[in-house]
Amino acid sequence: MYTPEEIQHRFDAVTLKYLQNKNRGGSSGQKGTRYEDYFAVYKLAQLARRIIAFDSNVQFSSQLLAFVDDLIIEINAAQIQHYQLKNSANVSWTSGKHPIQKDFANQQKLNHNRYPRSHMFLVVSDQACATRLVANIPSDIQPFSRVSYFPYAPDIMALVEQLPGFKHALTYLSAFENPEPDKLDYVAKALIGAWVTSNFTNVSGKELLLTAQRQTPQYIRSFETTFEIDPQLEKILSSIEDLHYNLAKGFLHWDYADGLQYGVQPYSIETEPFRRLQERIIHHNPRTFEELEPLL
Q1: Contact between 61 and 74 (Cβ < 8 Å)
Q2: Strands 145-149, 243-248: parallel, antiparallel or unpaired by DSSP?
Q3: Which candidate, 200, 241, 247, places its Cα nearest to that of 30?
Q4: Which residues does the chain have with pLDDT short of 50?
Q5: 149-162 pLDDT tens trace
Q6: Of 16, 18, 55, 192, which residue is least crowded by CB atoms under 10 Å?
Q7: In angstroms, rounded to a whole number, what is the distance separating the alpha carbons of residues 128 and 75?
Q8: Is residue 244 a contact partner of residue 254, using CB atoms and an 8 Å limit?
Q9: This prediction's pTM
Q10: SS in 3 state form for the chain?
Q11: In Å, what is the CA distance from 29 to each residue of 23, 33, 34, 41, 59?
C-alpha cells in the first residue's frame, strides 16, 4: 500500500518506527483474533453482491503499514475504507500515547492524494460506547470519520442472529433460496476459512469468494450472471410429465408430482460434475420421471 520511504517522506523517522512496531505487533497477533476475523467476513459478505453482479475490484487487507490497519478495503482503486476495531466498552478518541484521533488524521493525510474517497471507521463491540463516540467525534476528523457498532459473539451463527444484514448477505451467497441456519453456517465458515488462510495483503474479494465456493461448492451460489442449460437437456426436462424445474442461483431445482419427490443438484451449472450430468441425461434421453430419476 505505502512503502516505508513514502511514510518517512510524508511524516518522519519517528512516525515510521511507530508504524513498523504497530505492524509487527498486529501481524503477530492477527491469526486467531476472532472479533477481527468475523468483522472481515461480515464486510466480505456485505460486498459480495457488488463483487459478483458488477464485477467490482475489491481488495481486502489487514495489518499493513498504515495508521488504521485492522481492516482495509479498497474498492475499484478509487475508494478506500480503513477500520479500527475495539472489542471494549472503554474506547476514547483522544486517550493514550497514540490516540485514535491522531491515527485517523494521519491516515487521511496519507490517503489524500491517492484516493478520491477515503473514510475511517472506528468499530466497537459496545452499543453505549458507540453512541458516545458518535456524539464526540473530534471536529478535525469528523468529515471523514464514522463509528460502527459490531457486537462480539462466541460463534459466527450467534453473530448472524444478531445482525439481520449479515443473515441477508449470507442468504444471497447461499445456493438455496430460503436456507436453513445450518446451510448459512456452512457459507459463513467457508468465508472464514478463505479469509484466515489468505495472506491478508491486497486479497481480491472475488478470489476470497471463489476460495470459499471451492471449499463448499454445494452450499454457495454460482457466480455466473446468466444461467443457461443445454437446449437438449431443457427439451428433455420440459417433456417429462409432472416434472417442474428451475434454475436458482445457478443450481438446478426439480419437483415431481407437486412435491412427491424433489431435489437440488449439488453442483452449480458451470461446474464439470454438472456438465457430466447434463451429457448423461442427453445421452439416455429419458421420457418419464422413472427413467430420469436414476440419472439425477
Answers
A1: yes
A2: unpaired
A3: 200
A4: 25-32
A5: 999 998 999 999 99
A6: 55
A7: 31
A8: yes
A9: 0.81
A10: CCCHHHHHHHCCHHHHHHHHHHHHHHHHCCCCCHHHHHHHHHHHHHHHHHHHHHCCCEEEECCCCCCCCCEEEEECCCEEEEEEEECCCCCCCCCCCCCHHHHHHHHHHHHCCCCCEEEEEEEECCHHHHHHHHHCCCCCCHHHEEEEECCCCCCHHHHHHHCHHHHHHHHHHECCCCCCHHHHHHHHHHHHHHHHCCCCCCEEHHHHHHHHHHHCCCCECCCCCCCCCCHHHHHHHHHCCCEEEEEECCEEEEEECCCCEEEECCCCCCCHHHHHHHHHHHHHCCCCHHHHHHHC
A11: 10, 7, 11, 18, 21
pLDDT of 130: 97
Task: For the sheet with 261-264, list strands across it.
Answer: 243-248, 251-256, 261-264
- What cell does 8 get? 518517512
Q: Which amino acid is at 123?
A: V
Backbone φ and ψ of 240, nearest 5°: -85, 125
**pLDDT tens digits, one per residue of 42-93:** 999 999 999 998 888 999 999 888 999 999 999 998 899 999 999 999 999 9
Amino acid 276: pLDDT = 94
Which pLDDT does position 37 carry in this prediction?
Answer: 95
